[in-house]
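During the reporting period the student researcher (J.K.) took over the structure-prediction task from the postdoctoral fellow and processed the backlog of single-chain submissions. One of the processed entries is reproduced below for the supervisory committee.
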Amino acid sequence: MKFQPDRSDVQTITGYGSGWIGVDTDKVYESIIIGSQGQRIAWQCSRFEDLTAAHFAQLAELDAEVVIFGSGLRNRFPPPAWLQPLMARRTGLETMDTQAACRTYNILAVEGRNVVAALLLESQDRP
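J.K. obtained the following structure tokens:
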């Protein structure tokens, strides 16, 4: 699917497919954190099962208003204990599959919100 952003002054997700997303003019094939303030950070996980509390502590350090967690090909929720660093900073977390997270990130980013998307990229071809 291809998107057209309303504003061009924020980093946006321009498309997605199985195992990839488009970020502005780049195509990304690995899990990534992107933010409306220009963050683009490799997220060291390739499967939901690889995630740890440290991954969510990293998200808390980004000081966003809200974090959109794209949990891969389907919606899966992290253990509540992992979310303590986010709750301590009063940072909201929304969990959805990665494709829905891409769409939601764009909506919030073009509204001018300080939003971060942590996107787990899985391919349907992977076991």
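The committee noted the following: The helical segments are 53-60, 84-88, 98-110.
J.K. will present the remaining backlog at the next meeting.
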